[in-house]
Structure formats: structure tokens, C-alpha cells
Design a protein that fits this description.
The protein is of the alpha/beta class. It is 38% helix and 16% strand. It has one domain: Rossmann fold. Strands 3-2-1-4-5-6 form a six-stranded parallel beta sheet, sandwiched between helices. The structure holds adenosine-5'-triphosphate.
Length: 192
């Protein structure tokens, strides 16, 4: 039985906050494999200035060189519901233990996800704080008694939105992105 980490996101673009979070859990939970799953179409937010699926997959390959970049949501198309994705992953990895990695914004809104109860029966939810507000991230009431790990990784405030804004204003994104991703965005003229 392997321990599989699953990290989904829009990754528009993937940034240091993402890689740091995923690497932390790979180490802490001794995961055998990390699946990074770029969303085709996020169900919960508007997709302004969304780079193509191909570009986001390519950037994920550069940002997560040791991970498997899964095209399951890209291939399925439509709104990317995590429940549907996990059903497919369960078929691909029968008998393996699944750890689903999220930042605190996703943890706190988890009860509004499509089929959240069923999702919680399929995975262990692994979360870290992303807001540097001095307060410790607490377990929401609706997750008490479920398989949830809230790690102590100090928050690193950064979002893809911030990066898209920097690029469109011609400001530097140094220290926010893996250098190879930075180069890719520049070469392809993304987010200008
Ligand atoms: P956007 O600004 O476009 O909304 P984002 O930066 O929130 O994007 P997503 O691709 O939507 O990035 O995030 C994928 C996952 O990574 C989510 O679970 C999110 O909570 C988590 N995440 C994103 N940024 C961070 C961060 N800086 N620290 C910890 N987790 C993060």
C-alpha cells in the first residue's frame, strides 16, 4: 500500500507557496508519490486571465519536477469537482492511502464543496495556514472527528493573483516563482 499525496489547484501560475506546501507534506507524511492536478475549470472562483491547460500543465512540470502531473481534470473538461477526480484516482490507485493537500482558505470552505462528506471518507485532509495574521489555524467545527491533519508550517503569504498582477504591471516576480516558471511566463508572454 502506497501513500499518495494529491495536490489540486488552478496553478495559474504555480508558485513558491504551492511548492513549499507540497514539499512539506511529502516529507512530513513520508509520501511515496505526489500527484499534482491542475484544474480545468475551478468550480468555486471566476477564472480571470486563465492560462491554457497546456501552459498550466507545462508550468506544473517545471515547478514540481518530482511529482506526477495528472491530466485527469483537463481530460474530463467542464467544472472540475474534486469528488469526481477522487473517484477516478481511487480507481487508478486501488488500495492506496490518499492524502489531499490544501491551504487554509480551502480548509475553511470545505463544507461547501460538492459532496464534501463523501470526499472526507476517501482521503485524509492535510492543511496548512496561508495567512500571516498571527492567529493559529484552528480545526473548523464541521471537520471535528474526521481524518484531518493541520500542520505547523509557518504561513507564506503569496497567491497566483498577486503574481498575475505583478506580471501585468511589469513588476518583478523574483522570489515568488521557480526560475524555470518565471522564464516560461516571460517567453510565452502570459498574464501581460
Ligand atoms: P489565485 O490567487 O488565482 O486564487 P492561489 O494562489 O490561491 O490562486 P490555487 O492554485 O488556487 O492558488 O491554490 C491551490 C491550492 O494551494 C489551494 O489549496 C490553496 O489553498 C493552496 N495555496 C495557494 N497558495 C498558498 C500559500 N501561499 N500557502 C499555502 N497554501 C497555498
Amino acid at each position: 500500500m502506497s501513500r499518495i499525496g494529491i495536490f489540486g489547484g488552478t496553478f495559474n501560475p504555480p508558485h513558491i507557496g504551492h511548492t513549499r506546501l507540497a514539499e512539506h507534506f511529502v516529507k512530513e507524511l513520508k509520501l511515496d508519490r505526489l500527484l499534482v492536478i491542475p484544474t480545468y475549470q475551478p468550480p468555486h472562483k471566476s477564472a480571470d486571465n486563465l492560462a491554457s491547460g497546456e501552459d498550466r500543465i507545462n508550468m506544473c512540470m517545471l515547478a514540481f519536477p518530482d511529482a506526477v502531473i495528472s491530466t485527469v481534470e483537463m481530460n474530463r473538461g467542464g467544472k472540475s469537482y474534486t469528488y469526481d477526480t477522487l473517484c477516478e484516482i481511487k480507481e487508478q490507485y486501488p488500495g492506496d492511502e490518499l492524502f489531499f493537500i490544501v491551504g487554509s482558505d480551502m480548509l475553511l470552505s470545505f463544507n461547501r464543496w460538492y459532496r464534501s462528506e463523501e470526499i472526507l471518507d476517501m482521503i485524509t485532509l492535510c492543511a496548512a495556514d496561508r495567512e500571516d495574521d498571527g492567529a493559529e489555524l484552528e480545526m473548523p467545527e464541521f471537520l471535528k472527528g474526521k481524518r484531518v491533519i493541520i500542520t505547523k508550517l509557518p504561513p507564506f503569504e503569496l497567491s497566483s493573483t498577486q503574481i498575475r498582477e505583478c506580471v501585468s504591471k511589469g513588476e518583478s516576480t523574483q522570489g515568488m516563482l521557480d526560475e524555470a516558471v518565471r522564464f516560461y511566463i516571460d517567453e510565452k508572454g502570459l498574464y501581460r
